[in-house]
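Model it.
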Amino acid sequence: MRSFRAGLAVAVFLVSGTFTVASAGVTPQLPYPQGQPSAKEIIEQVYFVNHFYALKNFAITKVRRKITVLISRAKGKRPTTNTLERYLNNDYEDDPVIRAKDLAIFRSGKLRGTGILITDYDDDARGQSYMIWLPALRKIRRFAQPAQDDSWGGLDFTFGDVVLRKPEDETHEFLGKMIFQDCLDGMDIPKNQRNRYTRNLSRQSCVSKGKEVYKVKSTTKFENWWYDYRINYIDTTTFADYRTEYYKNGKKIKYIDRDWRSLNLEDPRAMAWGYWYGKDFRTGHESWAVIPKEVIKYNADFKPSLWSERTLRKIKR
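Modeled.
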C-alpha cells in the first residue's frame, strides 16, 4: 500500500496543471493584465500559467523512446526513475459542473500500468475526485483529495507546492523587478548511475538567465506550517515562475526551479514545462521531472472519451 501511495503522489505531480481546487477569480477566462499588476494579481497569473488555462488541452505523450521521466535521489544514493504519459483537458466551457480532467498513465517502474483520472470542478468548495486504476487488482479505487502539506512519496514537493495551494492561502508582497542572473539547476547524475531514460539529460537550463522578473514574497496564512514564506521569481511577460525559494525561521530550507518553454501562441502565457527540479536543504534529497519537447502536444484533436473510466480499464500493464 505504501508503494501505491507513493506512486499516486508522483503521478499527481505531472498532472498538477489542473489538479487543484479552483481559486476564486482564477479561471481559464482570466484576462492578461494591463499596466503594473499587484502582488496578488501576479500570483493569480502564475496560477493561470501553471494550470495551462491558455490552452484547450495539453499532453505529454510518448514519441518513440522519448517520454517524461521522474527522478528521485536521496543524499548519497543512486537515483530511481519512473516514466509516464499525461493528458489534460481544459475544454469544458459549456459544462456547468466540470472545469478540467487530467489523466496520467505510468509506463515503467514498479507502478507500470497504473492510471489516474482526476476531475476538477467549477464549484470552488468542492474537492477533486480521484479514480485510480490498479493493474494488479484489475480494479478502480476512488480517493479523497490529499492534504496540502503531504509529501509526494519521497519527492521534494508537497501537494500544496504544485497541486492544492491557492493564491488566497497566502498574503503577497511585491518586492520589485530585477534581472534574473542564474541558470536553472537540474540533477547531476554520474555516468555510471544513468539509465536509458537519464543518459542524455542536460543538467542545466539557462532559459531564465537575463530575463526581467517580478520578485514576490508570499507568506502562508496557515499556522505552524512547514514554511513561513516563499520568494518567487516570475517572468514579467509570460508569468512563468522560474524559481521559488522556501524559508523557515529566516533560513532557506528548499527551492524549486522550473524550466519553462514558450509555445509561441498569441497569449504569452501559453507555456510548457521543460522540467521541474527541487532540492531540500534539510535532507539533501533531490527530485527532477524532465519533459522532452518532442512529447508535448497541445490543442490537439483528442476524443473527449479519452478522459473516462473506460480508458483506465483498457491500460495494459
